[in-house]
Amino acid sequence: MGEQPIFTTRAHVFQIDPNTKKNWMPASKQAVTVSYFYDVTRNSYRIISVDGAKVIINSTITPNMTFTKTSQKFGQWADSRANTVFGLGFSSEQQLTKFAEKFQEVKEAARLARDKSHEKIETPSNHSQASSVNGTDDEKASHAGPDTHLKSENDKLKIALTQSAVNVKKWEIELQTLRESNARLTAALQESAASVEQWKRQFSICRDENDRLRNKIDALEEQCSEINREKEKNAQLKRRIEELESELQEKETELKDLRKQSEIIPQLMSECEYVSEKLEAAERDNQNLEDKVRSLKTDVEESKYRQRHLKVELKNFLEVLDGKIDDLHDFRRGLSKLGVDN
Length: 342
Prior knowledge:
The chain is an alpha+beta fold. It is about 70% helix and about 15% strand. The protein has four helices and eight strands. The chain has helices spanning about 95-130, 135-145, 145-285, 290-335, and strands at about 5-15, 25, 30-40, 45-50, 55-60, 70, 75-80, 85-90. Strands 1, 2, 3, 4, 5, 6, 7 and 8 form an eight-stranded antiparallel β-sheet that branches. Strand 1 (about 5-15) and strand 2 (about 25) form a beta hairpin. Helix 3 runs antiparallel to helix 4. The radius of gyration is 64 Å and the shape is rod-shaped. It starts with a strand and ends in a 5-residue tail after the last helix.
């Protein structure tokens, strides 16, 4: 007895703007339950959707209605009784196709119900025409007495009252079902919100990790730049060391030359000593030979001059040699500081 749900789905509900008749206005903030109901008593079909305590769709299906697919996930139909156009947005094309197929099925059932209703109306009307001449049994009974007529009306009222009570109970059950559905939807929404928060936290963690990795990459790139600079400095130092080694070889060659020259000094000293001895011998031999002394005096003076000159040159040479040796020692100490073996 009463209305029974025969098909249920979920969709976003829209209604056409009554002013522009073009723009869609959302009737629900989120996807809600949309159901087909069949009324056994009236033999009629309705589409009903409730958002919380608000009924947003209450459309009786008639044979003249048409459900139109306007996109892969959106469909609409016009309800002349409600003076509006309803639109439904589905999450998939399959849901839209199932809803459209059910709409066509319900529409055909509504057409058959209307045809049967017309046949029933025509049959009693013919019967009333046939009995209008002689009068029906009910009319005779009503003429028979007012008590019988009142009793019949009272029975009809009792039946209507019983039917109302059944409908009220049915609507209470349906309201409870809708409340439970709303509670499940609320729980699902809360779970979805919690999932969204969890995804937000995970996204924040991933973003922080990405920033950390990007900073680490920047630091590694900076370290690579420093390593390249150090390599360039090392290459420069290597070239400088090669230049210093070349200079060192030149200095060593020069030092060998100076050492060879220094080997001549003892020979010169020996010659000087020999000349001095010879001069002394000549002076002893020529003490009595004044004429020879006077003639040889010039030679002696020249020999002394040469000796002094050689001593000066020897002194200057030794000073230059000492300076070269000091320079060489300084140069080797500089190489030691640079970490180059002598």
